[in-house]
Amino acid sequence: MGSEPEPGCALRPFAVEQGLLSRPDGSAAFVQGDTSVLAGVYGPAEVRSSRESPERAALDVLLRPKVGLPGVLERSREQMVRRACEAALLGELHPRSSVTLVLQVVSDAGSLLSCCLNAACLALLDAGLPLRSLFCGVTCALAPDGAVALDPSARQEKEARAVLTFAFESTEKRLLLSTTRGACSAKEVEYVRDVHGTSV
Amino acid sequence: MAASGLSAEVDVGQVVLPGDVLLLPAAPNADGERLRLGPSSAPRGRLLCGPGLRRCAAGLLVTKCGLLRHRPPAGAGTGGGAYWVDSQQKRYVPVKGDPIIGIVTAKAGDIFKVDVGGSEQASLSYLAFEGATKRNRPNVQVGDLVYGQFIVANKDMEPEMVCIDSSGRANGMGIIGHEGLLFKVSLGLIRKLLAPNCEIIQELGQLYPFEIVLGMNGRIWDPREVISTPQDWIHQQSGLLHLFVALSPNLGTGAFL
Amino acid sequence: MAAGFKTVEPLEYYRRFLKENCRPDGRELGEFRATTVNIGSITTADGSALVKLGNTTVICGIKAEFAAPPVDATNKGYIVPDVDLPPLCSARFRPGPPGEEAQAVSQFIADVIENSQIIMKEDLCIVNGKLAWVLYCDIICLDYDGNILDACTFALLAALNNVQLPAVAINEETGLAEVNLKQKTPLNIRKYPVATSFAIFDDTLLIVDPTAEEEDLATGTVTIVTDEEGRLCSVHKPGGSPLTGAKLQDCITRAITRHKEVKQLMDKI
Prior knowledge:
Radius of gyration of chain C: 21 Å
Oligomer: heterotrimer
Order of helices and strands of chain C: HHEEEEHEEHEEEEHEEH
CATH superfamily of chain A: GHMP Kinase, N-terminal domain
Structural class of chain A: alpha+beta
Largest sheet of chain C: 6 strands, mixed
Strand content of chain A: 25-35%
Distance between the termini of chain A: 15 Å
Number of helices of chain A: 4
CATH architecture of chain A: 2-Layer Sandwich
Largest interface: A-C, 38 and 37 residues
CATH class of chain C: Alpha Beta
Shape of chain C: elongated
Distance between the termini of chain C: 45 Å
CATH class of chain A: Alpha Beta
Strand content of chain C: 25-35%
Helix content of chain A: 25-40%
Number of domains of chain C: 1
Number of strands of chain A: 10
CATH topology of chain C: Ribosomal Protein S5, domain 2
């Protein structure tokens, strides 16, 4: 790849605010274009005995959509965010305690999962929890003609042949999370992953 | 982000992020203030790895985001000293030796359960007060404030605190009054206030005499006499709080709340 | 003595085997358990399949019913997957509403159906705007011994292959649908997606088809769904240990090989 970013490989303008909520131990708001997610972290706090683990902190993630009750899609996303955060969090330093991460979708205009991951990472950072590394999420849309668009809007996602979301950790840029919608070839996945890695 | 292979030099006092690996200078005496991000040889001298840092194969792994601080070794030692990350947090994690303000929540036989703001409640034995014996029990009720220090505080065990020091004297610890107000502030502010020659404390002292108790768990207790009218009460409390807020720009990088 | 060591230090016990490049049940790191499939066992369902992947047993039953097509796509039918992990299959699941694992697997199966275009929803339409088929795919796990995603995907595929839909005629006078049970046609399966799951150990080792014990000790999982053209329908890595690009490529290569093995099995039935 050349050193200049190709058209379509530019991210939407993004903004971060940390420490905006007074009650949670850590909070962050992440805005990507028109997509905005608010995250709050409580922890390390008391844990229910059923969730208690003698080896590491029990991490719970709650994802609340903008309208309606959380459904199967939200549960699936909660599981993905939880496992990504568990890989980055040093839970061994706080056994028999719980860390609760609450994500509230304020507005959804595409790339929602990566916005949630970014907000989660910054909220954990704001709470002062020990982390092995930082991580960030990026979404990419493959148009039917093969063009790659980073950080797609809702319209681009709808028209795309495939939408891929990746999360990379900060130390060695290895892949932490991957989820795809739509079918694509193995070469396209590799190419997109490399493009994501450089943009991160 | 600096990848392994680049040799960036991090001055003490710079912001570090989780995942950064800090390598200790090969020559301990020269460049004691600088740490290199990159491959290096094994460190020499006794080094204290403080909060926010963990030892890893290559050096020190940063686990919290904040400013890197360094204290040179006390004697004329060959390198070492202490490194730590000055980070901001609201939630307290018990550390051995920290003086804290706790709230008694339950009496269970011979011990009291004390809420210290951490993930677990601490236990306080009734014999851990000055002059307490099996016959002469201290008069501690549920809801009282106690000022003590931790003797056992690690991640694997329930924290234990006492209200006497090693020689058996109270030294200011114990039940602290039944009136007054308890403020919850961030841990960074407490550390700033407890630093030697804190500007706020000095300026406040010049305005009017006061006595406050600071707990490392983010709690400040302010003993006020019972005020007769509600207006006086509000004026007195908002005065202290406004002073804290007004003086916070002088705190520099450590945030107030 | 080995059993005692396994209870006290399960991870160390497992590492000893991994050093010799094998696993406690004698398999290689890249070897799958014995896969068997039995179709058409549920006579009351329109299509069914039972898949056994070692000890993991999953049964899928498909019922076809009538429904009005969705308003925004009047020529499409519905496919509704639902995965149930009852307390029967493992001690880790409690009775009550579906837990997080069951919901996550249900979402994964729904995504596989959507991404791989296994059935075109247009094929399920009977009368445009008025009547369409809705296929309720109920996948129930009978024995949970790891690698539930692979087993569910395969069971769904085999059951869909087994579905026979009766012919439907609309009576001109009454406007009602008349079902002719004697005349049945199979579904048109366009793609054959096959899932391959890996468990990540100690950030470096990848093992294929983990058992339940291996999943508990693993630090991460990856699932790759491929179809017969070698296209990736899903690269599902829900967090866990980070992977380098080269390791991901190895997973994709192994998944393509596994697809050929499963396709051979499918062709036999």
